[in-house]
Amino acid sequence: MPLRPAKVPRDAVHHPVFARFYARMSVAADTKGGIAAHREELLSGLSGRVIEIGAGNGLNFAHYPRAVSEVVAIEPERTLRRLAATAALHADVPVDVVPAAAEALPVKSEAFDAAVVSLVLCTVRDVPRALAEIRRVLRPGGELRFFEHGLAPGGGAMALAQRGLDRTVWPFLFGGCHTARDPLAALERAGFGVGEYRRLRIPEKGPRLPTSFAVLGVARRPFEDGQ
């Protein structure tokens, strides 16, 4: 199915210094911190056409099952997009890496059987708009697989510290990342039916990287969705 022309500039997101840091850090977290196993769990059982939002350097690509017929991988940051394009060459499924932003997906409505967001909603500039776009491009009943970090459950000192970080230099230093967003609440507000999920801390082992609260699970666009 042909893509529509993008409605955003090719470099709507540009964090070249952070992108290089993230590329190194994410590989270490995958290989030594246990993140690769979470990616495997996230993508297990998928089939048909899939859109991945914020593909980064393409670390998910190796974990897509062969039942997936195509992955359209959206990545707005140039440095990460180049790395993702290289990773796509080695994937077991067809992957098309596309320059676009989550808030303006250059694809037709109801074109995908599933969508994937993986450690990306923390950096999206307009989360409600991005989730509305994902809902638009999913077929009714389609799955949204999510693996996101965010606000510590239950509030308390950790949640207070996260909110403080978001109001200071953290987003500036870390590519627009916000530590205090609540991905589950955002999904529910966007009209997705949240199914099974589990909470975890990442990375769980390995390199001395900052740990974060995370949630991994599945949501669906309702069958009766009249969007």
Q: What is the element layout, followed by pairings?
A:
Elements: H1 16-32, H2 35-43, E1 48-53, E2 68-74, H3 78-89, E3 95-98, E4 112-118, H4 127-137, E5 138-149, H5 156-166, H6 170-173, H7 183-189, E6 193-202, E7 212-220
Parallel strand pairs: 1-2, 1-4, 2-3, 4-5
Antiparallel strand pairs: 5-7, 6-7
Helix pairs in contact: 1-3
Question: How many strand elements?
Answer: 7
- Give the topology string: H per helix, E per strand: HHEEHEEHEHHHEE
Can you count the helices? 7
Overall mean pLDDT stands at: 87
Structure class: alpha/beta
General description of the model:
This protein is α/β, with parallel strands linked by helices. It has a single domain (16-220), classed as Rossmann fold. Helix content is 31%, strand content 24%. The chain is built from 7 helices and 7 strands. It has helices spanning 16-32, 35-43, 78-89, 127-137, 156-166, 170-173, 183-189; strands at 48-53, 68-74, 95-98, 112-118, 138-149, 193-202, 212-220. Helix 4 (127-137) links the parallel strand 4 (112-118) and strand 5. Helix 1 crosses helix 3 (78-89). The two termini are 21 Å apart. Residues 52-145 form the Methyltransferase type domain. It comes from Streptomyces formicae. InterPro entries: Methyltransf_11, SAM-dependent_MTases_sf, Thiol_S-MT. This is Class I SAM-dependent methyltransferase.
